[in-house]
Specification:
Layout: E1 2-7, H1 12-21, E2 30-35, H2 43-50, E3 54-57, H3 61-70, E4 73-78, H4 82-91, E5 97-101, H5 113-118, E6 121-124, H6 135-138, E7 141-143, E8 164-167, H7 179-185, E9 193-196, H8 201-208, E10 216-220, H9 225-230, E11 234-237, H10 249-256, E12 260-264, H11 267-270, E13 280-282, H12 285-297, H13 299-315, H14 318-336
Helix pairs in contact: 1-2, 7-12, 10-13
Length: about 350
């Protein structure tokens, strides 16, 4: 089974997702990824290639057309990047096509209605997008998760004096602006909270302007999120109300390591965290303060909720998503076989 993926790049969440899926795909699946941009970070690309995936960069439109003709299934990896929109305008939508959309449609960017209508199958990364689809589109839609925890993560060490961490997009395009107000409102004897990720200049400025700037450590980007999260007990993950995320890799990863999450009541997070069981879902910024204080003051509660969080994160296993894609691709090929011949790679 020959699957051609059309993607702008394999960085961030999309690259991490495919790198996680690759080891769980059966041997008869041959994947090609046509990337519209040269890779900047090769970690996920290297993992995919180690498991037999082929990476194609610098392809012109005629070459992409030949690769499409040689594939059994063409899958668009969509998150609203204009480069993929431009390619689609040039090549159209081939038969036996799938769109795996990595955005929710709740905020900008919007779901690509024209593309979703044209493809044979749709895969959503979260059920939160289902209300935005028409009954016609829902009939050809599957939910295939793209956020996965760590396999064989080190056992979490529960500390009497806990630490708080955030890992992800440290930019107000996604991060809630009032995160620093929450940290300012906590108690004086708490350990500093660590923010891991590429720190935007605006975030750095706001952190420096805190009443208690010593309560925040801007740790920067890390290539070893396991070690970064291992330093913490609580995962404080307050995102903007209109953020476009769906599967939230960092949140699932933190939970898989036994960290207790505190999140706002955004649709994506509410599908991941079970309130008062695997973490806390706050309705307001003030509630975030109360939830964090409660966790800090109750080591036994952190231990109990952390264990449940780790169990729930394991349900989102990459093997399940890999199997779901194999079934989707195979079903699409079988449906089209009578009218469209299976072609060989050039």
């Amino acid at each position: 089974m020959k699957i051609l993926h059309l993607a702008v790049h394999l960085g961030g969440g999309i690259g991490k997702a495919h790198a996680a899926l690759a080891p769980h795909l059966p041997a008869n699946i041959r994947q090609r990824f046509v990337l519209l941009q040269e890779p900047i970070d090769n970690r996920h690309v290297d993992t995919i290639m180690r498991h037999g995936g082929e990476i194609v960069t610098g392809a012109d439109t005629p070459m992409i057309r030949r690769l499409i003709a040689a594939a059994d299934v063409v899958q668009f990896e969509y998150w609203g990047h204009p480069a993929l929109d431009e390619l689609i305008a040039q090549i159209g939508i081939p038969q036996r096509s799938v769109c795996w959309t990595h955005i929710s449609g709740i905020g900008k960017p919007s779901l690509p209605t024209a593309l979703l209508n044209a493809v044979d199958r749709i895969a959503l990364t979260s059920p939160i997008s289902r209300p935005w689809l028409t009954p016609h589109l829902l009939r050809k839609t599957s939910i295939i998760n793209s956020g996965f925890g760590f396999d064989n993560a080190p056992q979490h060490i529960h500390r009497e004096k806990p630490t708080i961490a955030y890992l992800g997009t440290v930019d107000f395009k996604k991060l809630h602006r009032e995160i620093f107000d929450v940290i300012d409102a906590l108690d004086d004897d708490m350990a500093p909270a660590s923010l891991w990720g590429h720190i935007s200049p605006e975030v750095a400025t706001c952190a420096a302007a805190m009443h208690h700037p010593e309560r925040i450590k801007l740790r920067g980007h890390t290539l070893d999120p396991v070690s970064a999260l291992a330093e913490a007990d609580i995962f404080f993950y307050p995102l903007r109300r209109d953020h476009y995320g769906t599967a939230e890799n960092a949140l699932v990863e933190a939970m898989s390591m036994g960290l207790v999450p505190v999140v706002l009541d955004n649709p994506a997070e509410m599908k991941i965290v079970a309130h008062r069981k695997s973490g806390f879902i706050a309705h307001t910024i003030d509630e975030c303060v109360s939830c964090l204080r409660r966790l800090v003051q109750a080591p036994s509660l952190r231990e109990e909720m952390g264990a449940i969080a780790a169990q729930e994160a394991q349900i989102k296993a990459p093997a399940r998503s890999a199997n779901a894609f194999v079934e989707l691709w195979a079903g699409l090929i079988a449906e089209r076989r009578s009218s469209v011949p299976v072609r060989q790679y050039a």
